[in-house]
Design brief:
Distance between the termini: 30 Å
Order of helices and strands: HHEEEEEEEEEEHEEEHHEEE
Radius of gyration: 20 Å
Helix content: 10-25%
Shape: elongated
Largest sheet: 7 strands, mixed, barrel
Number of strands: 16
Structural class: alpha+beta
Length: about 280
């Protein structure tokens, strides 16, 4: 997702802001999105334009309770469109400005492929190797994260003493994957500056392991080790409104697609600060 440098200058507020949101989701210039200049209905041009990319617009029936680990378009009570993101969701960008909260959402649309079977996953890059910069756990959900020098990792459960190891995390679910261990790159946190000028301390990112030197996205779908602990990368650990509430305003938008990795522990072991992180041979 890339926020465009400009939004369409002409048209009703909903049309201008909706076109800008489409541009952000598809990472194109707003000028590339069709905007009828004669006040005509924009939906047919938008759907036709998206169809050339194999995409369509899906209405969201209950947008205030819609959780999606990616961007979608929300219509606010004022009539303007905004970008929503996360599970649970929050507003990450209002093309026309303002401070309308997520609770004012009255409608929503998801941009989705016509046939997901025709969409290929991105080619995996070489993740290189890295090290553990910090280990952190929280005994209870929403409790402050506590930094540790070392921690025991248990297959199917996570780090001993953490709320997810106890099955008591906010998103704990015995049938779900990717809750054993969360990782985030130190490079992301080092470069991140919130709108207030604040930075997010490593532990405050609420991930179990802060890494340095390794491409976490390249570990999705791969087995890897941290020290002598064997793990498998499941998916990106995208930010959400819950994380923003526990950190600082602006963290949701700042961490989109940079929130780290969700992984499962498949073999017990110990993780220590300074331990090597490396992908395993397929």
């Amino acid at each position: 997702m890339r926020i465009p440098d400009a939004i369409p200058p002409d048209g009703p507020p909903l049309v201008r802001s909706f076109a800008a949101c489409l541009a952000a989701i598809l990472e194109v210039d707003a000028a590339d999105v069709p905007v009828p200049s004669d006040g005509a209905d924009p939906w047919t041009p938008w759907r036709g334009w998206l169809a050339t990319r194999g995409l369509g617009l899906i209405p969201v029936p209950e947008p205030r309770t819609f959780s999606w680990p990616g961007p979608w378009i929300a219509q606010l009570d004022s009539g303007a469109a905004a970008l929503a993101f996360g599970s649970p969701p929050g507003i990450v960008w209002r093309p026309l400005g303002g401070e309308e909260p997520f609770e004012t959402v009255v409608a929503g649309w998801l941009v989705a492929p016509h046939d997901v079977a025709l969409w290929s996953p991105p080619r995996q890059a070489d993740p290189a190797t890295g090290i553990v910069e910090l280990i952190a756990v929280a005994a209870e959900k929403e409790a402050p994260m506590v930094a540790l020098g070392r921690a025991s990792a248990i297959a199917g459960r996570g780090l001993e003493g953490d709320r997810y190891w106890r099955g008591a995390g906010t998103f704990s679910n015995a049938a779900a994957r990717g809750h054993d261990l969360t990782l985030i790159a130190a490079e992301v946190l080092d470069a991140l500056v919130l709108p207030s000028g604040e930075r997010i301390a490593y532990a405050d990112a609420r991930r179990n392991v802060v890494t340095r030197g390794i491409d976490l996205d390249a570990l999705i779908g791969r087995r890897f080790r941290i020290g002598d602990v064997e793990c498998v990368g499941q998916r990106r650990c995208e930010p959400c409104a819950h994380l923003e509430r526990l950190t600082a305003p602006g963290s949701l938008r700042a961490l989109v697609h940079r929130g780290g990795l969700r992984a499962d522990v498949v073999a017990d072991g110990t993780i220590e600060v300074g331990a090597e992180i490396a992908a395993l041979e397929d």
